[in-house]
Amino acid sequence: DKGNYRHFMQKEIYEQPEVIGHTLSRYLNLNKLCTTLPKGTSVDFAALDRLVISACGTAFYAGLIGKYWFEKYARIPVDIDIASEFRYREMPVKAGDLALFISQSGETADTLASLRYCKQQGMRIGAVVNVPESTIAREADVVFPTVAGAEIGVASTKAFTCQLSVLASLAIHAGRARGVLSAEREAELVRMLGEVPAYAVKALKVEKDLEKLSQPLSKSNHALYLGRGTNFPLAMEGALKLKEISYIHAEGYAAGELKHGPIALIDESMPVIVVAPHDEIFEKTVSNVQEVAARGGRVILITDARGAAEAGINAWKTIVMPDVPEIAAPIIHAIPVQLLAYHTAVFMGTDVDQPRNLAKSVTVE
Ligand code: M6R
Fold first, then answer.
1. Which of 7, 105, 115, 167, when mutated, tests ligand 1's pocket best, judged by the most ligand atoms within 8 Å of its CB?
2. Continuous segment of H or E residues that includes residue 16
3. What are phi and psi of 207, to 5 degrees?
4. Which of 213, 217, 259, 326 is deepest in the core (most CB within 10 A)?
5. Which residues lie below 8 Å from residue 309, measured CB to CB, with a gap of 6+?
6. Cα–Cα distance between 68 and 16 in angstroms, integer?
7. Chain centre to alpha carbon of residue 225
8. Which one, of 155, 348, 347, 152, lies nearest residue 241 by Cα?
């Protein structure tokens, strides 16, 4: 039931504050300000030499953001690959190390095949899944549930932000277990993550601003998404969302890679969506984006108030997001890229919930 929403995708975007809250409640103790693992799960993060992550599509982008977190907060080296490559790569793995598979449906053929490969190699199998009775959940040793509820729209939205919520919590948990984070730092990060549902409510308020961009964006045949750090996977996620529901060709690039090729694409007709809240690497992203603006590219800057004030870019449009702490930023900045793709697709009249050629669950390789 779509309720008062026009599409399941829009409903699912709006469910995010609630389902992120449900998911976080399984991993955070907001009274004691510490992380907790769901009942019955245990992982010895202190003993890990390495973490292997594999997934497809949007779940893979969640994993990429997870890599930044596990490396930064827990100092665990992370190896990540899309499952269709991973399964044939014959990667050397160490028995006993943890392999993490991320999947909304829990039925994706390539992800399942990668899981079975790692299991054969004697690895411990963890799964971040949304469907508890799915094959991937059943075959994993440890299940880290997302509590997104049923996701009907083919374009994944709430499952993605719930996956991010789980990965952020696990990274903090691992950081504490490995002695990288102090109890005080853990408490601080937990408090920040606990605010994500409230930040998400604020983030949804940018919908009208993004809707105004749908008409001009629909006139473009191409779009480029840029970001650095955890905003780089978000750029790829934004491009994937736009491609799959509006059929506009889009690419997500690391902002620093621009001058290694894609800048040749920039002219007055190229919309460039930049995900850049004011963080440690903001200045670096800005200097890349200045090169885009100087070549006439139409910059849509998704940032926060401080970023908007300090960017000094002649942006075509600036979307001002709420101020959020760094650990919350990837989850919150997923929302505007979802809404931009959604409204562009609605404006173009595509079948938003059932885009052509796509299935919700890809059970063949
Ligand atoms: O069910 P899964 O999370 O394993 O699915 C993975 C991808 O097929 C999925 O994320 C796909 O990329 C979405 N349509 C993206 O919106």
1. 105
2. helix 16-25
3. -55, -45
4. 217
5. none
6. 22
7. 14
8. 155
The ipTM (two decimal places) reads: 0.99
Q: Measured at the alpha carbon of residue 330, what is the angle toward residues 329 and 334, in degrees to the nearest 5? A: 115
Measure 56 CA to ligand 1 centroid, in angstroms.
6
| Ligand 1 centre distance from Cα of residue 156 (Å) | 6
Output the ligand 1 site: residues, CB below 6 A: 56-59, 103-105, 108, 111, 154-156, 240, 244, 361-362
Nearest residue by C-alpha to atom 4 in ligand 1: 103
Per-residue confidence (pLDDT) for residue 39, from 0 to 100: 87
- SS3 for 267-289 is CCCCEEEEECCCCCCHHHHHHHH
pLDDT at 40: 85
DSSP string of 176-229?
HHTTSS-HHHHHHHHHHHHTHHHHHHHHGGGHHHHHHHHHHHHT-SEEEEEEST
Query: Residue 115: what pLDDT?
Result: 97
Q: Whose CA is nearest to atom 8 of ligand 1?
A: 57
Quote the pLDDT of residue 34.
98
Between the CA of 59 and the centroid of ligand 1 the distance, in Å, is 6
Distance 135 CA to ligand 1 centre (A): 15
198 and 30 in contact (C-beta within 8 Å)? no
Mutate which of 13, 56, 361 for ligand 1? The one with the most ligand atoms within 8 Å of its CB, which is 56
**pTM above threshold 0.90:** yes
Best of 362, 364, 365 for a ligand 1 pocket test (most atoms within 8 Å of beta carbon): 362
CA 348 to chain centre: 25
CA atoms of 109 and 102, how far apart (whole Å): 12
278/307 Cα distance (integer angstroms): 5
Distance CA 52, CA 50 (A): 7
Buried b (16+ CB within 10 A) or exposed e, 123-151: bbbbbbbbbeebbbbebbebbbbbbbeeb
> Does 284 qualify as catalytic in the annotation?
no
From 119, 202, 317, 360, the catalytic residue: 360
pLDDT digits (tens, 9 = 90+) for 25-79: 999 999 999 999 988 888 999 999 999 999 999 999 999 999 999 999 999 999 9
